[in-house]
């Protein structure tokens, strides 16, 4: 198996965490027999050293020619330079990004890397996101971009953008899940010791107050619910398990997860259905029951809404055998 080739384009003022995220996450993604699925390399314009915001320099092994053979190009965030201050980009960098996109490479940005993609002309007329603290500046510089600063990441037809800091990890895991399925993505997340999934539409800035010593959170109740996805679970059941009133539980649940209990439960059931479709031979009606949707129709409706395809189509993507394809 030839690994998927990823080029990380580092510009001057690159954010250290953003630069390291693709190599760490994609470099951890492997098959069950530990075959690497991705090969990650870093490049800079002219193969020149660039400064990072963390106080070190990046000494690359490649120049922009790396973008010519990459399957995916990732632009980490930057905290200084013309893309941030003036909305402009060196012509050779802009041309290299546009050429990579034109030949079909997947283009991604982490955090303020979206400024670079916008300056290259790749985001005009598209939905995109970036770190919420830079939203006003982004809108002033790039009014033609449909900016949504309230989500963790957006997948917009071959061009993907994410919010700041840890949202870059979420985007990388989303790509791994899209490419290779939930089992590989979950295994990668476990090795990186991060949550396997935060939904892209989740708010960037979740309120996370430090609980009082006497207060309990909702983590134990969430784990309790995950073990019972095949059963009907009402809001009052969740609140009862947490020994809280429905109102207090709902408020605290949203502050900890960024989602309502109903949204979170629907997401968990969808993800469990994905895993069952990928890794078992269960008929779709039994997948629906095991995941807590009850009926095939309910599974099909919610699955298509969240994943974009029908359950049977999704299964054929990851288990393309004649027996399963006929189900």
Could you characterize the architecture of this molecule?
- A six-stranded mixed beta sheet has the order 2-1-5-6-10-9, sandwiched between helices.
- It is 45% helix and 11% strand.
- The protein has 327 residues and is α/β, with parallel strands linked by helices.
- The protein is built from 15 helices and ten strands.
- Mean pLDDT is 90; it is low at 206-215 and 322-327.
- It starts with a strand and ends with a helix.
- Helix 1 links the parallel strand 1 and strand 2 (38-43).
- It is globular.
- The chain has helices at 16-28, 82-85, 91-102, 113-119, 135-141, 167-180, 182-192, 219-226, 235-242, 246-257, 261-279, 284-290, 296-307, 311-318, 322-325; strands spanning 4-9, 38-43, 50-51, 57-58, 72-75, 106-109, 127-128, 146-147, 153-156, 159-162.
- Helix 1 crosses helix 7 (182-192) and helix 11 packs antiparallel against helix 12.
- The relative contact order is 0.08.
């Amino acid at each position: 198996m030839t690994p998927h080739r990823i080029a990380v384009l580092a510009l001057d003022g690159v954010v250290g965490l953003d630069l390291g995220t693709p190599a760490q996450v994609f470099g951890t993604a492997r098959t069950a027999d530990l075959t690497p699925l991705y090969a990650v390399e870093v490049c800079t314009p002219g193969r020149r050293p660039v400064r990072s915001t963390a106080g070190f320099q990046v000494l690359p092994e490649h120049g922009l020619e790396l973008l010519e053979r990459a399957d995916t190009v990732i632009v980490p965030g930057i905290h200084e330079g013309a893309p941030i201050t003036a909305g402009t980009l060196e012509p050779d960098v802009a041309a290299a990004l546009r050429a990579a996109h034109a030949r079909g490479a997947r283009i991604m940005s982490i955090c303020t890397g979206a400024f670079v993609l916008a300056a290259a002309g790749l985001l005009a007329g598209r939905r995109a996101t970036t770190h919420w603290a830079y939203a006003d500046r982004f809108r002033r510089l790039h009014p033609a971009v449909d900016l949504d600063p309230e989500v963790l990441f957006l997948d917009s037809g071959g061009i993907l953008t994410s919010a700041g800091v840890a949202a870059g990890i979420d985007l990388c895991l989303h790509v791994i899940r899209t490419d290779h399925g939930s089992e590989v993505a979950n295994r990668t997340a476990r090795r990186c010791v991060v949550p396997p999934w935060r939904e892209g539409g989740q708010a960037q800035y979740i309120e996370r107050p430090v609980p009082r010593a006497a207060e309990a959170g909702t983590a134990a109740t969430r784990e309790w619910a995950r073990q019972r996805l095949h059963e009907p679970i009402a809001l009052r059941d969740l609140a009862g398990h947490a020994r809280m009133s429905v109102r207090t539980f709902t408020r605290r649940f949203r502050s900890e997860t960024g989602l309502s209990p109903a949204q979170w439960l629907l997401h968990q059931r969808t993800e469990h259905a994905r895993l069952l479709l990928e890794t078992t031979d269960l008929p779709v009606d039994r997948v629906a029951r095991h995941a807590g949707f009850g009926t095939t129709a309910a599974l099909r409706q919610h699955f298509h809404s969240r994943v974009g395809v029908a359950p049977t189509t999704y299964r054929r993507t990851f288990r393309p055998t004649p027996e399963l394809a006929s189900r």
